[in-house]
Amino acid sequence: MTTHDLVILGSGPAGMAAAAAAVAHGITAVVVDEQPAPGGQIYRSIETTPIKERRILGNDYWCGEELVDGLDDPRIDYRPGTTLWQLTRQLEVGLLQGDQASMVRARHVILAHGAMERPFPVPGWTLPGVMTAGSGQIMLKSGGLVPSAPVVLAGCGPLLLLLAVQYLRAGVPIAALLDTSSPGQYRDALPLMPGALRNIRTLLKGVGLLAELRRAGVKHVRHVTALEAEGENRLERVRWRCGNDPEWHSLTTPLLLLHQGVVPNTQVTRALDCTHDWDERQLSWRPRTDTWLATDVEGVSVAGDAGGIVGAKASAFQGRLAGLGAAIALGRVNEDQIRAEVKRLRRELKRETAIRPFLDTLYQPAAQWRLPEDNTVVCRCEEVTAGEVRNMAKQGCRGPNQTKSFTRCGMGPCQGRMCGLTVSELLADANGQSVSETGYYRLRPPFKPITLGQLATAAEDISR
Amino acid sequence: MFKRLTPPDAPMQKTVIVYFNGRQVTAQDGDTIAAALLAAGVEACRTTPVSGSQRGPYCMMGVCFECLVEVDDVPNVQGCQVHVKDGMQIRSQHGARRLG
Amino acid sequence: MNTYDFAIVGGGLVGSAIAYGLAKASYRVAVLDEGDVAYRASRGNFGLVWVQGKGLEIPSYSQWSMSSASLWPSLSEELWELTGVATQHQAPGGLHLCYSHKEIELRQAELTTLSKATGGQFDFAMLDHEQLREMIPEIGESVTGASWSRWDGHANPLYLLRGLHAGFLRFGGTFLPGSKVHRVQQRGDSFVIEREGERVHAERVVLAAGLGNRLLAPQVGLQAPLVPNRGEILVTERMSPLLNLPTTYLRQTGEGSILLGDSHEDVGFDEGTETPVLSHIAQRAVRALPALAKTRIVRTWGALRVMTPDGYPLYQASLSHPGAFVACCHSGVTLAAAHAKRLAPWIAGDSSPSEIVPFTAERFDVQTANPA
Predict the structure, then answer these.
(1) What is the pLDDT of residue C369?
(2) Residue C90 CB coordination number (10 Å)
(3) What is the CATH number of domain A3-116+263-333?
């Protein structure tokens, strides 16, 4: 089996930065990404986007160009369109490119596969026509595709505001922005302002986005406390309520884009049995890492949003740090030689992440949006409702694995990516336990489906 | 549901012809199958094996597995992860797949 | 102080079936179960309700399995009526595939001996490739034939557990999940079962804690020399119905997924999966059903079987600690009906089913506090 010094999963900001840092110390980095082009989600399609007018996607997008150019370095073995289907604690790496499955070994692995949208289970969210804000951004960046009719955006978080503004700048009519943040959150976030002020640019950006929406007269409905998508076989209208007002409002629309923040994608770190901690502020799990971003599985580090939401700029700093950490671990450089650089990096990282507590608190989705009503589907693949999960708690299921085995919740193709967080929180709530105590699904490879034939072929690499 | 911001006759956008359930769909080079279908007005691309409910793409980034379609006789392909190629035959994924 | 009639240590397939049977007979029963993440052999069960090939060394095991298989339909029906949980039990017969004439001959000889030893009660037929193809049209060319028995079938092991659990609760049982039992002590006429921060009192106690029985059994004058044996399973994407009947390591579930399995690995307490093993399972499946080569695996699993030295169950009542019992096996699905309907009554005081007489620890040459 071929052995590589370093395998990096993901070619977003963290992955690209890690690769750049590693090659500077003589390591050939293999960068694997299932997308056909670099950039991850934040800089998606940056090389090929048809949205050439820079003002639309904004500076924060276009600043990714430099990192992407860095991938052209011949010392970086960049493999687009390649899916990771397996990673073991012995650092056996299973790759799938097109139809070809293979296995290689690594001496060190950096997981930089980013975040995914937090689940947003509301009645009707499985109807065709209900999608995520992230999907709207992907369609915009990759294909210049925008909603053809006035779109309803719903939820909370900077990404939702950003999309709204990008649509605005592209001339896309927005029917309404249904804001689920609660007034109390501004109050809760205020004490964290000093941290936010250390990163005033980011702070002002958010304020600027809101102002832009206001100036354009976008219908911004605040303090939405109930939300439903309705229709026969497809989305026809969106209904909502505000505050304590019992009156339901409604808008006819063929497209609803939901968003309530992003969370680390923990499929791989979970399957490795890395220790994870529940982050009370970000309300998500993150793999436990040390100061070099190493997990408690030897040879595996995590950089970027996959280790806890930090944003694109901080992800790049983390990527760099993890790349340097790998270089140290592989004996290509010793700590003394790069002390100054690392000191600088840590300082920049600290400054860039100072705003996180403020942002995380400000945009924390309220409990009602994470603990849906009984008849709302939580496991989309197996069509299991919140009520069934609560019923399992009544029958003594203290954790998601027992619940999974009794209801099939989490057994579908997405392997719990869409329901895991919701189920853990539902069970914690129903059992009067902390989410930390409740735990998460036990996961195993394959991370993405692989055929029996492909598995057999890949396994042949082991004996070679 | 979705339309192109850049007009289709703008230069440098190569068109790709694919078929969805036998019907011709004009896509752009670089589109994923899911994006091409959405742009062509297709809302639901499959029915679930559990209840037969209609589903369409949700996350567009390979996480949700809602965008499953049959591509050139291969079932359960994530439409958002595969790019369109001329002549591709795409069909709705109705419930569970067949053998072979 | 609440003293239960029975405390069952272990809420897996064995514990739950026994608990169900006892609760149904109106006893006050508590089931003590560990947390969400534990070894839990029950969650790794393949789902066969299997008779053929069992009991080659100890024929009464074949009889015990046949008894359970006969009672299975009524258990399944009962659970459905009581709890609304469907076990998806089907008994269309089952196949053990053979890949050479030598294998066929060997299999035939073994099963013939077994049939004789059970007075013809266990019966079977050998199928050649053509006959096999009639049952499974997509069968691979290199499959020489198979042994078929009408006694075999399959069910959904997780729904079975769910049904037994729900049924147990319906009959007034108390479920006490949360942590591992570490001590069982006799106090006068009854038992105190201890775990973190808690004590449960019961007149009688049944140790059904799978591998955990190793450490608990000696506390009540019994021995449970169990070793873990890992089995790995691959699960495919859902498919429209194609396999009409189960085979030993290849079956289609009620949802349509194909389960592939049957590795036996000596790896200690490692519940993980290993690529060479998974690949071997995959290759064997593709040999049996070549069209599976293009089917996707969506999930893999490893679990530890609860294995006695000879693979046969362990059912024993303690003499030094009357009222304490141990029950372990690695066929918790097949034997669920027997456990609920015949073992539970024995535990409650009825005479022992004749089939289980050989299954005490003395056969392993161990010293128990009970004279053999």
Answers:
(1) 59
(2) 17
(3) 3.50.50.60
Give the gyration radius of chain C's Cα atoms. 21
- Within a 10 A sphere around the Cβ of B80, how many other Cβ atoms? 28
Q: At C240, which CATH number?
A: 3.30.9.10
Kindly state whether residues C221 and C231 are assigned to the same domain: no
- For residue C292, the chain B residue with the least C-alpha distance is B100
Query: What is the reported pLDDT for C372?
Result: 46
- Is A265 in a helix, a strand, or coil? coil
> Do C169 and C145 belong to one domain?
no
Instruction: Specify the amino acid at residue A445.
Output: P
Distances (CA, A) of C369 to A402, C220, C317: 36, 9, 11
Q: Which residue among B76, B95, B100 sits closest to C291, beta carbon to beta carbon?
A: B100
Minimum-distance CB partner of A450 among C33, C276, C297: C297
Tell me, what DSSP letter sits at residue C34?
-
Given CB atoms, is C296 within the 8 Å cutoff of chain B? yes
Question: In this structure, is residue C290 part of a structural domain?
Answer: yes
Check A50 against B13: CB less than 8 A apart.
yes
CB contact under 8 A, B30 and A142: yes
First-residue to last-residue Cα distance in chain B? 34
Strands C29-32 and C174-176: parallel
- Beta-bridge mates of residue C7: C30, C205
Residue C64 domain flag: no
Same-domain status, C315 and C303: no
C236 and C278 fall within a common domain: yes
Beta strands in A141-236 (DSSP E): 145-147, 151-156, 174-179, 220-221, 224-230
pLDDT tens profile A22-40: 999 999 999 999 998 899 9
Q: Is C236 on the interface with B (CB under 8 A)?
A: no
Provide the CATH number for the domain around residue B26: 3.10.20.440
> Do the chains contact at A415 and C169, CB–CB below 8 Å?
no
Q: Looking at this protein, which amino acid is placed at residue B7?
A: P
* C322 and C217 within one domain: yes
Which sequence spans correspond to the domains of chain A? 3-116+263-333, 119-260, 371-438
For residue C26, give its domain range.
Answer: 3-53+158-226+310-364
Distance CA A73, CA A77 (A): 9
Bond from prior residue into A446 cis (ω within 30 degrees of 0):
yes
According to DSSP, residue C208 is labeled -
Give a yes or no: residue C26 inside a domain. Answer: yes
Tokens of B80: 């958002």
The residue among C138, C139, C235, C240 with the most chain B CBs within 10 A of its CB, best to mutate, is C240
Lowest-pLDDT range, A50-54, A218-222, A231-235? A50-54
Q: Do the Cβ atoms of C36 and A397 come within 8 Å?
A: yes
For domain A371-438, the question of CATH label 2.40.50.140 is answered with no
Residues A112/A322, Cβ–Cβ less than 8 Å: yes
Q: Strand locations in chain C, DSSP E?
A: 3-9, 29-32, 48-49, 94-98, 125-128, 145-149, 153-154, 174-176, 181-187, 190-195, 198-207, 227-236, 250-252, 258-260, 296-307, 314-317, 324-328
Tokens of C256: 């349509």
Overall domain count for chain B: 1
Amino acid at position A199, single letter:
N
Count of residues in chain C: 372
C291 interfacial to chain B (CB closer than 8 Å):
yes
Residue in C closest to A271 by C-alpha:
C272
Q: Is residue B26 part of a domain?
A: yes
Which tens digits make up the pLDDT trace of A254-287? 999 999 999 999 999 999 999 999 999 999 999 9
Q: How far apart are CA A286 and CA A282, in angstroms?
A: 9
The pair of three-digit structure tokens given for residue C1, joined into one six-digit string: 């102080």
Whether C298 and A449 lie within 8 Å, measured CB to CB = yes
Binary contact (A401, C36; C-beta < 8 A): yes
Residue B64 belongs to domain spanning: 15-94
Instruction: Please indicate, yes or no, if residue C79 is contained in any of the structural domains.
Output: no
Which residues in chain C show pLDDT less than 50? 372
Class of domain A119-260: alpha beta
